[in-house]
Amino acid sequence: MAWTPLFVKTDEMKILILGTGEVGERRASRFIQAGAEVILTGGTVSNNLQKMGAVSKPLEKIEELVEWAELVVIASGDQEMNNRVARLAGEKLLNRADDPFNGNVIVPTTFSVGEVQISIFTGGKSPLMARMLRKKIQAAITSEDILQIELQDYARLKIKSCIENQKLRRDYLYEISQDSEIKRCLREDRWDDAIAQVNSFINNLECSNSKNGNNNKNNYNKYDGIIKDEMSENHKEESF
């Protein structure tokens, strides 16, 4: 598969969408909510999209509009016009809803649970299965998982301020994620208690580090094998 998943910052990005049908409307709404400047052409723009900030321009200005855009989205039923706009786009970012593999950007099935964004791409084989997989994943993610993400963010910032070794930080964060009392607090939606547990854990680390001169090299691979099983080195989201 000659595609790789990326998240692109679309805040203030200039996006032109050819076509105002269901697909064009859906993509326009998605990009506007992500902060993009969106122009639609080739049809009538709904009142709802206009209220969101979408702008309608006449198709006669298509060359000027393509020149303006940083990302061109083709979602019209006019194949001749679609191909013309694709040619005009040249090397620009191009998403073709009508012919995905002749563009260079795919807009996959995407959904959010809390602040977690998940995208599914089946290589164009089955949009139906993409939707079914989405439902399965949504059902599998619990409120405890979402709270654990927030707690890990909190713990990560605090641990970074007192632990320099990245692998050691990773092990401590893993230990927090597996702590049975913290898990119970999150399951029972006792956020303040979970925070107190994390603070106590980190305070103990700080005391231990001050006594040992922050020399804990023998401990930093305590969870190495377990963590590598759960998250391969080739799929790190970010540093700990």
Keywords:
240 residues; alpha/beta; five-stranded parallel sheet; two-stranded antiparallel ribbon; 10 helices; 7 strands; 49% helix
Q: Can you offer a commentary on this structure?
A:
The chain contains 10 helices and 7 strands. It has helices spanning 22-33, 47-52, 62-68, 79-89, 127-140, 143-160, 166-178, 180-187, 191-212, 224-230; strands spanning 14-18, 37-41, 55-57, 71-74, 93-96, 109-113, 116-120. The strands form 2 sheets. The protein has a 5-stranded parallel sheet with strand order 3-2-1-4-5, with helices on both faces. Helix 4 (79-89) links the parallel strand 4 and strand 5 (93-96). The two termini are 30 Å apart.
Blueprint (SSEs and pairs):
Elements (H helix, E strand, L loop, with lengths): L13 E5 L3 H12 L3 E5 L5 H6 L2 E3 L4 H7 L2 E4 L4 H11 L3 E4 L12 E5 L2 E5 L6 H14 L2 H18 L5 H13 L1 H8 L3 H22 L11 H7 L10
Parallel strand pairs: 1-2, 1-4, 2-3, 4-5
Antiparallel strand pairs: 6-7
